[in-house]
Design goal:
The complex is a heterodimer of chains A (309) and B (349).
Chain A lengths: L1 H19 L6 E6 L6 H16 L2 E6 L4 H13 L4 E4 L8 H9 L4 E4 L13 E5 L1 H15 L4 E7 L5 H14 L5 E8 L4 H14 L8 E4 L2 H13 L9 E6 L2 H9 L4 E4 L5 H14 L6 E4 L2 E4 L6
Chain B lengths: L1 H10 L1 H11 L3 H17 L7 E3 L2 E3 L1 H24 L7 H18 L3 H25 L4 H22 L10 H8 L1 E2 L2 E2 H18 L3 H10 L1 H6 L4 H27 L11 H11 L11 H21 L6 H16 L1 H15 L1
Antiparallel strand pairs in B: 1-2, 3-4
Classes of the chains: A alpha/beta (309), B mainly alpha (349).
Chain lengths: 309, 349
């Protein structure tokens, strides 16, 4: 009896040794920007949950939106000799020195979300992030299909100069340019806010005589589209019926709007992206194979017909 | 000598009349407004169409006072503070905190009429805080109100977390009625605005408070020597500003029926200060022009509406706004006008 227990205990111990020996638990340092908005905290939570699933020992550092906090955190990761570092950069510039320190310590660095501007691109392995341009193209493709290539579009842009605004616009136009009868009739910036989207749509309604001839509203994010929906309802229009509504983000309020038929399509900006990030990092740690400088996270488009999750 | 004077007056009587009109402070903001409307008419002749849609007046010309109302409320409070030689940078944050509190209490199930008063009480509290820092602790107004300006939006976010903050939208027939509803054909918020304006006007012009505020702003020491409690007067200005900001906050929050502390009423303090200045007041204090401040807010909103309807690329929005503001302020500057006139006169010779 005792012997059996002892033996089985030894077997379990041996099994643990075997399973644990090739890599031991991988330790990854993750430096996050902060916890602004809805999307980023959701992503941080996902990173921690996915790390647990993958058996990764995750060291999480919140930079509170400060560049110097982030650099301090990265230096701390280097000192702790983690196996890999994932950075969601606060800013684009000023990374050369600290990334060089990581390289000299032999710790591979991965970027998530935003890009950095460094002279020597070999300072980081790759950037893993969503493709804003693809989001715009998906919205454009949906528009082309839903209107059979016959659309007069009003566009609510994001904050002028912001990367998502620039890329979503470019992507949308890249697709719709293939259809001679798709035109962007009006375009203005709603600053990515509900309030901004509402004001812009109010002005569009007036300047186009109650959206006469307009059949699509494309917003660079859901918040602006939700504002536009309010403005249209107040003007006695039926969003989702009179005008097709397509936007980007797929936030909870947009899910409700889709279910209510006030909106037609939303491209999802995923927050549960740990499952796309960790495999890339783990694979690299295993085979050290050179990666392209940008690994894209796929986008998804939800329509009113997509069941709620 | 008297005869010579008469002839010279007569010969330039037209110029003198024009000069007198030009000197009147209401002329230049009105001219700016007229100019914007002319531009609007050229861009889109339908700008002046007013119809009845969904039981209320509808058109760009209605949008201007409709959208200007919250800014004008904030600007009126700002005019009072500026009249005391102060400034209130925290108004946007007060709107944000008010919005978060409204949404929080609605989710908690309070009666909506009570929430309306809670929202105003929040503004009052913020005003008390600012007034305490400025009047009791003698902190420079720009620094004292900067504290709440910087922290206020964070406080709003923390309030959102009180109820999870996952779904900060709400429905409230009362509050939304005040903001986006209509009585007869007239948007309710315009009536709300007129009501609050009447209250403020009575408080300032039918009691001695307005006079006290202006005398404290003009010369605090002299006002104090005439027996005015300067601290209390300055204190009251910030309380008024807080209340005005929170009433604007009710309208703005109910408008989109969401709590968005990060971006609601962003930069409204700048628009409010601008409205006060376009209204002819000096940041040096001593004057409060209530009606003119409203005109200032209308000029700013007309400009915004013009930009939005013009179909101009959004990249130019801010530059165009800045150019128009500079032109309006230059027109208002008597130094600039006399300089231009003298240059023109020299040319003629």
């Amino acid at each position: 009896m005792h012997l059996v227990k002892l033996l089985s205990g030894a077997a379990v111990g041996a099994a643990l040794l075997v399973a644990g020996s090739p890599a031991m638990a991988v330790t990854i340092g993750f430096s996050q920007v902060g916890d602004e908005g809805d999307w980023r905290p959701a992503w941080s939570k996902d990173m921690q949950e996915e790390a647990k699933k993958e058996g990764i020992d995750l060291k999480y550092a919140d930079a509170q939106g400060k560049e110097e906090e982030q650099i301090k955190a990265v230096r701390a990761f280097i000192a702790q000799k983690v196996d890999a570092i994932i950075i969601a950069p606060v800013v684009v510039t000023g990374w050369d020195a600290v990334l060089d320190e990581a390289k000299k310590a032999g710790i591979p660095v991965f970027l998530a979300d935003r890009d950095v501007d460094v002279k020597d691109k070999s300072l980081f392995v790759t950037r893993i992030s969503a493709d804003f341009n693809l989001e715009g193209r998906l919205a454009g493709a949906w528009t082309a299909q839903a209107t059979k290539g016959q659309a007069n579009v009003v566009e609510e842009q994001g904050t002028v100069g912001a990367a998502p605004a620039i890329e979503r616009k470019k992507g949308f136009e890249a697709v719709t340019a293939n259809f001679p009868d798709i035109k962007i009739v009006k375009t203005q910036s709603g600053d990515f806010t509900t309030d901004g989207g509402k004001k812009v749509m109010e002005a569009f309604i007036k300047s186009t005589d109650n959206l006469k001839g307009i059949n699509v509203s494309f917003a660079h994010n859901d918040n602006m589209q939700l504002g536009a929906i309010q403005a249209m309802k107040e003007a006695g229009l039926k969003p989702g019926h009179d005008v097709l509504m397509v936007s980007v983000d797929y936030v909870p309020a947009m899910k409700e709007a889709l279910a209510a038929g006030d909106a037609n399509a939303s491209v999802e900006l995923r927050s549960a992206i740990g499952k796309y990030i960790y495999p890339v990092v783990l694979q690299y740690l295993k085979d050290k194979k050179e990666l392209p400088k940008w690994v894209k996270i796929p986008s998804d488009l939800h329509t009113a017909a997509t069941p709620l999750d | 000598m008297s005869q010579a004077q008469t002839t010279s007056t007569r010969s330039s009587s037209l110029g003198a009349t024009l000069g007198a009109i030009g000197r009147h402070r209401v002329v230049w903001p009105l001219a700016a407004l007229a100019l914007l409307f002319i531009v609007d008419f050229i861009i889109s002749p339908s700008f002046f169409n007013i119809r009845i849609v969904e039981g209320r007046l509808f058109g760009s010309l209605i949008d201007i006072p409709y959208r200007a109302a919250p800014t004008a409320l904030v600007a009126l409070g700002m005019a009072v503070v500026i009249g005391t030689k102060g400034i209130d940078l925290s108004v946007g944050s007060i709107v944000a905190i008010g919005g978060a509190v409204i949404t929080w209490r609605i989710h908690a199930g309070d009666p909506h009429l009570l929430i309306l008063f809670i929202a105003l009480a929040v503004g009052l509290l913020c005003g008390l805080w600012n007034g305490f820092l400025v009047a009791a602790l003698d902190i420079q107004p720009i620094i004292a109100t900067l504290i709440l300006m910087v922290s206020g939006r964070g406080i709003g976010l923390m309030i959102n977390l009180l109820y999870g903050g996952t779904d900060p939208s709400f429905t409230s027939p009362l509050l939304q009625g005040l903001s986006t509803g209509h009585i007869g054909y007239i948007p309710t918020r315009l009536l709300v605005f007129v009501f609050i304006f009447a209250l403020l006007w009575t408080l300032l012009r039918r009691t001695a408070l307005g006079l006290f505020l202006e005398s404290v702003g003009g010369n605090t020491a002299a006002a104090y020597l005439t027996g005015i409690n300067a601290r209390m007067v300055i204190f009251s200005a910030y309380v008024i500003s807080g209340l005005m900001a929170s009433s604007a906050g009710v309208i703005l929050t109910a408008d989109t029926h969401t709590s968005d502390p990060i971006s609601v009423a962003l930069n409204i303090e700048l628009d409010a200060i601008l409205a006060v200045v376009i209204g002819g007041a000096s940041l040096g204090g001593g004057r409060i022009y209530l009606g003119m401040t409203i005109l200032g807010a209308l000029v700013i909103q007309s400009l915004t509406t013009t930009i939005l309807t013009s179909g101009m690329p959004p990249e130019y929005n801010l530059v165009v706004k800045a150019v128009v503001v500079v032109v309006v302020l230059l027109l208002q500057s008597s130094n600039f006008r006399s300089l231009t006139l003298s240059i023109l006169a020299r040319r003629k010779r």
